[in-house]
Amino acid sequence: MTVMRSLDQYLLNRNGHWYYLRRVPETYAQFDQRTYSKASLKTTALEVARARRDAMAEADDLYWASLVEHAGVADQLSQNPALTRYRAAKKRAMARGFVYSPVSELVDTAGIAELMDRLAQISRAPAVQKGEAEALLGAAEPSAPLVSEAFEIYCKQIALSDLLGKSEEQKTSWKKVKLRAVNNFISVCTDLPMDQITRKHAQEFRKWWGERLKPKGEFKGLNPNSANRDIGNMRTLCEAYWDYEGEVNRENPFAKMRFGNVVYKDIPPFEDEWVRNKILAPGAFGRLNEEAKLIIYTMIETGCRPSEIANLMPENIVLDHDVPHLRIRERSDRKLKSRSSSRDIPLVGVSLEAMRRSKNGFPHYREKGALLSSSLLKAFRSNGLFPTNDHRVYSLRHSLEKRMLEADLDYGLRCLLMGHHDRRPQYGDGGSLEFRRDQLLKIVHPFSKNLFKKLPLEETGHP
After folding, report:
1. Are 319 and 294 in contact (CB under 8 A)?
2. Is the pLDDT higher at 386 or at 116?
């Protein structure tokens, strides 16, 4: 689609009234005999003119694509000519100040004055009567992309704001979960056109998930959370796509289809004795590589998420300070989980020793969250470091929160250090680094110096 080089490109003002004026690109000259595509935007307001200009420009792009569909024009809709023409007609009608309606609906709903106005608009552009007629008289047959095509449109155009600032790894993870829902729906109901998805299809999809949730023999059944996530992602896709097409009141077939009475299991914390006697025991992780071990040790006294530690940049590891600390910050190419995740965390105990050996961060695991998760999970399981099947590596984060609670550390400080949102009114900055460090020292775990025997400080260049 067209990229505007200036804010008022293709706009012309005559006596206070705005017009759309665009030269037909040479690429399409053999298909469109006009020198210019031009039309009154029927407004004296610049902001309205810009919005209608945008619609008109997109309509022209789609119209030209439909004219040369067999010439290989690069457009995500070029392989669906009917959909291309239909979307072009809708955009062109909107740019003319009308809502697109199929001809059968126009006959029943439009008044004589509106029909005459539409015909008058067509008569002013005789060179492209077909395109104008399709737009203003509803002659283009309604068409919609397949679910798989709509999903690509959603990712590439509709959800752009959701992806801004995310790293490639985060974008892949974002898309992976949503694509699973689309693929599962297609496997159950086939790759339907979006306008043919009915409540019956949504019910079939829910029924398919319901069968997978039922225990069968030794199979315990899948978690309802997975079903609700798939149904929710299909509901979001339908809503976002039809909103994008301007059909904001269209009924969503996936509305109110969630499974109820879902029990969410809390991840339990490790008990202090387990951390000290098992996880902090020298050699506890066997052959796990040094970077992964140091990430684990850093989690213990900081409560950081594994991804926050793995993606630390050298400038955010502050060791030459009266209070060594980590600066968890959002980057232009990587988002944090939430706004409150941005924080400064003093380094104490085993976490300080670990980061003294990691002044450049953890390049092996940077932007490789799946690899890190797999490595840590395998190490904990194979070395018997989970006391129950409900424990996770994330339990280290919950353990720090529990220790702070039991030591009666201030609620606001706990929220700040964990990166949680504090719902209370905010006063001050949560305390100096010295204060935060002194509070954490009250609960620090003892550890054996033998943990770092294979990687002494002098090898890293630290004093």
Report:
1. no
2. 386
